[in-house]
Amino acid sequence: xxxxxxxxxxxxxxxxxxxxxxxxxxxxxxxxxxxxxxxxxxxxxxxxxxxxxxxxxxxxxxxxxxxxxxxxxxxxxxxxxxxxxxxxxxxxxxxxxxxxxxxxxxxxxxxxxxxxxxxxxxxxxxxxxxxxxxxxxxxxxxxxxxxxxxxxxxxxxxxxxxxxxxxxxxxxxxxxxxxxxxxxxxxxxxxxxxxxxxxxxxxxxxxxxxxxxxxxxxxxxxxxxxxxxxxxxxxxxxxxxxxxxxxxxxxxxxxxxxxxxxxxxxxxxxxxxxxxxxxxxxxxxxxxxxxxxxxxxxxxxxxxxxxx
Length: 308
Known about the structure:
The chain has 308 residues and is of the alpha/beta class. The chain has helices at 44-51, 73-78, 95-105, 112-121, 137-149, 167-182, 194-200, 218-225, 269-281, 296-307; strands spanning 3-13, 19-29, 33-37, 59-64, 67-68, 80-83, 155-159, 186-191, 203-208, 211-217, 227-234, 251-252, 258-264, 286-293. The chain folds into two domains: 3-223, 3-Layer(aba) Sandwich (Rossmann fold), CATH 3.40.50.300; 226-307, Alpha-Beta Plaits, CATH 3.30.70.
């Protein structure tokens, strides 16, 4: 697929001296769902805000379908819809008025039928005449999404869209995202929830401390995230891993009291059974065992460490 967003050598340093983005290079493919993952303060929102023209970069270039976001900002921004983290809406306007007004801001002609479709898709139609101030937090989040979709953008940014929202909104949002993807809309989302990325994304990027650490197809990253550890707590300490167990790549703790086997979540269960049988045949006795799975934070730490 051709690229719809190209980010080249992008950096952002604030007046305080804090470097929020450091020489970021990233390409987003047309029509894909791209998940940008990272811990708090990693630079996710700054990167999105820069592409959307809210934050001015210190250096570098961003183009949207060939339009430079600085020299051709009107054409670039017209293609983008943004759902920010913050619930920022005009409290005294009605749902219909605020969503329709957002469409007009992008120079699009009035289209009540489109606004109706958007509101209905987000279960907002019954609230169309309600003032924003009377809505619940979840409904206000839906209004933000409706505003972002009001001008029929080719690209939709979702910045932590499901943080603190109810299960119903999360379900409705992902149904909407799937429908938009089918229409060819490119979707970039930031999230802390790896299950959302696994469910929705075609590709996943990891950002940490303002740097893109990794960009991979979902299947490959999920394989890494699927790594698990089986730890055997030994009855007696070992000086070394017995030779018959060498094919399993076991690691022995510094005190010699734990043996750890790292395996892929998709490995056949029979391999673990075979390992335990060979442990017994090697005369190694253990009093307990436990399994742990790599967390997203573990992956971040590993990737950042390897990048240094």
